[in-house]
Amino acid sequence: MKGLSEGDTHFTQLLLQSTGPFSTSNATILIITILVLLLMTAVIAGAETAFFSLSAKDIFFLKTKEKGSARQAAQLLEQPKMLLATLLVANNFINIAIVITTNMFIKSIIPASISEMMSFIIQVVGVTFLLVLFGEVLPKVYATQNNLRMALFSSPFILALQVIFRPVSSLLVSSTKFIEEKISSKSANNISSEDFEHAIELTVGHSATREEVNIFKGILKFGNITAKQIMRTRLDVTALDVEMTFAEVQAHCLEAGYSRLPVYKETLDKVSGMIHTKDFLPHLDSVAFNWHALIRPAYFVHEGKLIEDLLKEFQQKRIHFAIVVDEFGGTSGIITLEDIMEEIIGDIKDEFDEEDLNYKKIDNNNYIFEGKMLINDVCRVIGEPSDTFDAARGESDSLAGMILEIRGRFAAVNESVKFENYEFTVMALDKMRIQRVKLTIHPPIEKEK
């Protein structure tokens, strides 16, 4: 070519080589492979975020559906450790394939005149950009906002990967299980709560009063108690209907005698806020006052929340009252700051509390309780540890529920059930609800040596 220097001729030859057979056929294959691998790693990254951000309500929805994808998603969630191991193993294999394929493609399009260091920097930047943007950020952002949809979409693909990578995933799960067992065996030597209680009795039992000893024990058990264990159950909640008139609200508040009441719309599962009765004082003379303007936002907590954490939130937010909800968002009951403090210092009585409202002590071995009374409160009244009835209570939190768990069917009036040296006698029924129970504590049977 006329007018071209020797360097220009060399560059032209390199350009012709780069547009040869490799770039036309092989480069196309590499691009398609990279796109497919990026799509696969995006689905895996999105599935990881989606599956492990599903709420209990979403999981229940998947289990109740008969569709193939929903059934597959529920099947994957039955083994969360195997699911996580499959996602991690598959994601690592695919990312390695993306790195190798992308490096091959970038090398094929970079001119030979560029230095090796510059070529290496271009490859690292290119691969990192593709993996971070298309393999992590975008799919996880989408999965966070559409977790249920992403879980349904990816479940067939993840199920296929689980079959392919099962040997490696099983090995990973087994190794982690072995490590967990080793760690748990080392921590099993820790002192139990019973040993701590016995140590409290030995150290301060001779110099402190019984109330002070109970406070020490309450502090010890404080970190393991959930809101569900001490809340006031739904049946005992006094609430205001949003459709009530101001006169009806005043009469209802006077009858209830509480300083804070939840406000609901249609049913108690739809709590729209709460009312402080002190806010009514400036408007007592007004007949047609719009009391809805005084409704404050309600604070909701899950029934599995530890009261130790809830106490900190009460202190930070300066609130004394919370609505306890179950895994489906329904109202389970309410919990107050007073309920939490009673777990440490015992029952708090004021001039408005009725004496022995939920129980009556006949003597040191006989008590009469309401069936709705929580098992934790029963243990506190009779002076026993809160885990005394754990072997019999099952999933129940009330005394009536525990009797049904022990009996296995509905009990009749004057029917008794026994657990260890405790005897429960049903004294009154309201349809199928146990109203009153007599508890008799028999002397413990000494085991033969």
Please provide a written account of the structure:
The chain has 449 residues and is an alpha+beta fold. The chain folds into 4 domains: 163 residues, no CATH class; 34 residues; 119 residues, CBS-domain, CATH 3.10.580.10; 83 residues, Uridine Diphospho-n-acetylenolpyruvylglucosamine Reductase, domain 3 (2-Layer Sandwich), CATH 3.30.465.10. 54% of the residues lie in helices and 15% in strands. Strands 8-9-12-11-10 form a 5-stranded antiparallel beta sheet. Helix 2 runs antiparallel to helix 5, helix 2 packs parallel to helix 6 and helix 5 packs across helix 8. The radius of gyration is 33 Å and the shape is elongated.
Distance N to C terminus: 111 Å
Helix-strand sequence: HHHHHHHHHHHEEHEEEHEEHEEHHHEEE
**Number of discrete helical segments:** 17
Radius of gyration: 33 Å
Arithmetic mean of pLDDT: 78
Number of domains: 4
Largest sheet: 5 strands, antiparallel
> Segments where pLDDT lies below 50 for 5+ residues?
1-5, 7-22
Structural class: alpha+beta
Question: What attributes characterize this protein structure?
Answer:
single chain; 449 residues; alpha+beta; 4-stranded mixed beta sheet; 17 helices; elongated
Give a brief rundown of this model.
The protein is α+β, with helices and mostly antiparallel strands and about 450 residues long. The chain has helices at about 5-20, 20-50, 55-65, 70-75, 80-110, 115-145, 145-165, 165-185, 195-205, 210-220, 225-230, 245-255, 305-315, 335-345, 375-380, 390-395, 400-405; strands at about 230-235, 240, 260-265, 265-275, 300, 320-325, 330-335, 360-365, 365-370, 415-420, 420-430, 435-440.
